[in-house]
Amino acid sequence: MKSFGALVLLSICTICNGFVARAPVGRLRAPHRITMIAVGDTLPNVSVKVAGEVRGILDLFANQRGVLFAVPGAFTPTCSEKHLPGFVEQSAAIKGKAPFVGCVAVNDPFVLDAWAKTVNAPTSAVTMISDGNGEFTKAIGMEMDASGNFLGTRSKRYAMIIAPGGRVEWIGEGDDAFANVVMSKL
Fold first, then answer.
1. 38 three-state secondary structure
2. How many Cα atoms are found within 13 Å in the side-chain-facing hemisphere of 70?
3. Is 63 helix (H, G, I), strand (E, B) or coil?
């Protein structure tokens, strides 16, 4: 009887102090996974900022074929020395086959504007697209955790060829996301 009383007292104290044994709420829900966009899919019409205006990403491809490439971050070494400059250098050749060339980054539009000026990327060559909150990047399953480098959630490096209307014709990631590879796929 003594042990039963102690057990009841322990149970009452535990409940009063809020220490009820239960699974954490987050563990009860199934994880929300977004599948990476694939060839044949249509881009989700997520809002981004282009030249100071909020636009739906599909508006950029409403009546034209284009190339959309993403960088992990403005002012980062590979993005500044190779990725963006490659598209600037080959923009005339690319635009001969795909009239729109856009660069997406999970950065604010002011940073992208300053970065474009720093690397001599005129708007006539590449349109800078700010996905400041990462909503487009997450919607297509291309986000990555770069918090180990103090960058937070960023975009993976990728390039896509987009048909008029926003259908994905081709996707390249990592080393396949550079201008020379995109040119070979157009």
1. coil
2. 27
3. coil
Domain positions in the chain? 47-185
Query: Are 67 and 98 within 8 A, CB to CB?
Result: yes
Q: Does domain 47-185 bear CATH number 3.40.30.10?
A: yes
> Over its length of 186 residues, how does the chain's per-residue pLDDT go in tens digits?
555 454 444 444 444 444 444 444 444 343 444 689 999 999 999 999 999 899 999 999 999 999 999 999 889 888 889 999 999 999 999 999 999 999 999 999 999 999 999 999 988 999 999 999 999 999 999 998 777 776 767 899 999 999 999 999 999 999 999 999 999 999
Give this prediction's pTM.
Answer: 0.79
Counting beta carbons within 10 angstroms of the beta carbon of residue 70, is it exposed (0 to 12), middle (13 to 18) or buried (19 or more)? buried
Active site residue 79: yes
DSSP 160: E
